[in-house]
Amino acid sequence: MEISEWKKRLGLKRRNKDMFFKGHFQSPIPPEDRMKFNELDYYPPDPKYYFELELHEHKEKEIVKVQDTTGNERKFLRWGEFRFKIGDKDCTLQAYKSDSMEERLFIPFRDAMSGKETYGAGRYIDLDANEHYIKGKWILDFNKAYNPWCAYSEHYACPFVLPENWLKVEVKAGEKDYSLKGGESWSS
What we know:
By secondary structure, the chain is of the alpha+beta class. It has a domain of about 120 residues. Helices cover about 15% and strands about 30% of the residues. The chain has two helices and nine strands. Strands 2, 3, 4 and 5 form a four-stranded antiparallel sheet that branches. A hairpin with a 5-residue loop joins β3 and β4. The radius of gyration is 16 Å and the shape is globular.
């Protein structure tokens, strides 16, 4: 896909998300804050954070236990890993599934911007096979990284990012930390 088309699609996706967050009854923004909400804060689209990668699937699908923000434990299958470079740094991220029949990959991650410009507990990327798997490769686009819903309201439970998915590099792509104008963010 050419860069101008990619940026256009990304911009449309972001505008649609803002409209959902502002007005939909299922928005994670608390109802009392929706009138003050205008839009989410994003890094400008950057193609250096867009990757087409092979998933190195694990032979043994180990079950990992992940605590969530309410103290409960969730189980995921460690399905495979993505290997790539950001700048000159080698990076690896584990991809998880809730169960073996699921078509979607879940990639939670933290990076050097977590707690600075992005949500302190980390961000997520979801990869759906129908949309993100093309010609034997997965599209891992950090420009689509998003905050879990617990970043907007303490009423949601979100799995923490396991240390194996803590990147030592800055990922200046995707959604930034959330706060209402003049308000406090949940990660501060």
